[in-house]
Write the structure tokens for this entry.
Amino acid sequence: PSGLRELALKTPIFESDEVRTGEKGMVQLLFNDDTTMTLDAGSVVAMTDFGYGQGEEPSFAVDMSLGLMRMITGEVVNGDPEAFSVKTPHGTIGIRGTGFSVAVSPDNTLVTAFQLTDGREILVKNDFTGEMTQLKSTSMAVIVGPEGSQLIPLPDLPAVDSQFIARPSLSGIQ
């Protein structure tokens, strides 16, 4: 189909681009504000807004419809924490300067933090209920879906949904 292109080292990504990884694929994207995004196999993310640089308002927004993503935020968040968001079919995640993972399935979205510094947090808005959940600990996770949001300890995660256990391909990425 037209409009598709294969990514290679240093391939630019633009607003309105959709990045899809194949069944055995994985990609790591580095943005010019030093944000790092890693997508596991079977992931789909659309770039909806990115602004950083001289004369630009800082902004970073993606829509993630499926898969597993791990991200470390960069300078956009340092300049304006409100300018960074990840939207999923179940909720909107406001990032306040941190490293985090997002797993999206057809039924729900799981958000975990692996790096929270200087009292930072992740805000998760359930787009079905309007409920806001604060994730302030790397030992907790938020599950968001049509039935509501749930803050759970990570040790209890496998009992909730084994689909969200981190895959080895992402577990070693810092």
About this structure: DSSP finds three helices and 13 strands in the chain. The CA atoms of residues 35 and 74 lie 4 Å apart.
